[in-house]
């Protein structure tokens, strides 16, 4: 049975924890709005970009001369997984879910006898990957110093990927990130960036024949495909940013509620023991008086 | 025939402009072109340059680098990797862009020793960049 003093300190400490989680929740809510705005601002670009790429890809088709970034190396032995997570924890299952998805994919590929390489973006993902897939880990991109992710950050990551692709280090590249659905739901997503896959784009084929291209289709593709990688990574980063804040917000909301419940429970316990102490004292006084 | 066409200028980070334009001058990779309503459908890549938009509410100019434009009879979408209203373009921004292009040239000269293609492309990018600077009165050094 803890003493009254112990209970009092417990209550105080849980109260200050609740203050912290409450504050973190509010900060996350504010950041979430900004992150969501950023994600929405980038959407027109991504949509149109993919739309045009779909048209181009459809008109070039599978011809021999199509750039490697679209057609692939003709092999799929070496897979590069780009795992994008948050720099910080305390956001529920957010980082864990992405890392788990990447790990499952890596295990599946390795079971098929393929080579897997992993690049991580975000400290938390790096920690998880280093623990589970240490021998596949090849590089880490540090965004700790970056407050608001900009397109140039995505470009740097894309350049890293493209250099490795040119050097023949891998055949297929996939990015892992969390798609922002709403504050409680974030969906870990896998997206293949190299070779680029625009087949899913709607209406990709309907009117491509009427377009003129300047310079020709293939030159445009050569110019745009590397940008496509950057665009895909950028939208992944932004989705991730919004997801992270959303996940943190709901995790901290839960924590605040739990702390509240704990405080209630402890307070009841505190009051009961206080009452017990008073009753005891009274009994002692009364029995003392009776003995006289 | 419609008098105007829907013009959208989009960069990865935001939608910069969305107006009804009467005519748009685009710095295409193979030369400037002016698109007016009922233009034939065309997709072109951009070189660094000035994009001029004329609309009922006046003219505006943007500095754009990298990207492409999709033109058809009713609309023009310009997707530029970097796009800045011309008035907001500063010497520092421009310097950063020129430096990036210079780096790219140096790097491609290293990587592609026997392939002139990428080196020429990088050199052209830098030259276009400098030419654009001259046009808007910013120096590359």
Plain-language structure description:
The complex is a heterodimer of chains A (292) and B (141). Helices cover 62% and strands 14% of the residues of chain A. Chain A has six helices and six strands. Chain A has helices at residues 4-60, 68-71, 94-111, 123-132, 151-166, 217-291; strands spanning 78-84, 115-121, 137-141, 172-180, 186-194, 212-214. In chain A, α5 (151-166) packs across α6 (217-291). The N and C termini of chain B lie far apart (47 Å). Chain B has two helices and seven strands, in the order βββββββαα. Chain B is of the alpha+beta class and 141 residues long. In chain B, strands 1-2-5-6-7 form a five-stranded mixed beta barrel. Chain B has helices spanning 91-111, 116-136, and strands spanning 5-10, 15-28, 31-35, 42-45, 49-55, 58-71, 75-85. Classes of the chains: A alpha/beta (292), B alpha+beta (141). β6 (212-214) of chain A pairs parallel with β4 of chain B.
Brief write-up:
The complex is a heterodimer of chains A (292) and B (141). Chain A is of the alpha/beta class and 292 residues long.
Note the total helix count of chain A: 6
Percent of residues of chain B in beta strands? Answer: 35-45%
Provide the low-confidence segments of chain B as ranges: none
Helix vs. strand class of chain A = alpha/beta
Tell me the strand percentage band of chain A: 5-15%
The number of distinct helices of chain B, counting runs of at least 4 residues, comes to: 2
- Tell me the greatest interface: A-B, 31 and 24 residues
Mean pLDDT of chain B: 83
- Helix-strand sequence of chain B: EEEEEEEHH
Radius of gyration of chain B: 16 Å
Average residue-wise pLDDT of chain A: 87
Strand numbers in spatial order across the main sheet of chain A? 3-2-1-4-5
Number of strands of chain B: 7
Backbone shape of chain B: globular
